[in-house]
Amino acid sequence: MPDQPKDADIVRRILQGEVNAFAVLLHRYKAHALRIIQRRVPPQEVEDVLQEVFIRAYRSLPGFEPESHFKKWLSTIAVRTCFDFWRSTPSRHESPMSALSEGHQEWLESVISSTSVESTERCARQNEAREVLAWALGRLSPEDRMVVEMIHLEGISVSDAAELLGWSVAKVKVRAFRSRKRLRKLLSTLPGKEEG
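Now predict its structure.
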């Protein structure tokens, strides 16, 4: 197997006018970008966001530093494109609790009142929990949503999240604290979540 050209060499060729060489980078990193996007946007939007990521990457090639790692550079573009997706999506903050289906409301009541869970029901409940979490995340601001997903759901470090988002570490820490608090408040208002 012949040596694969280095990413920086491919970028250099593209910038010198060999635009078709971008297909090599697209092929090399499409799966990586797809994994990032699939965790952050609704399934029906993944292909459009993926296309936008590579359009932005292509347009940003003149700013790529040859000593940088292309994969990490592309990861930053992918995360920021997902963030921009949520920023451009109409706000869902005002959605009423009734936006949850009757099945989700019943599930919440059963989870809260149930003391024993059988393993077959556990899988169904995990799916329901994912849907309820998606509902709650949809009510957060784009900034809060990205921080919750990256730090609390994916386990990305604060410093890595700051670098990917282009924010300061302090801003990420403050957002993480506030986001977690907002999410907790949202989830505490669900039906059947009464004190006592």
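The chain has nine helices and no strands.
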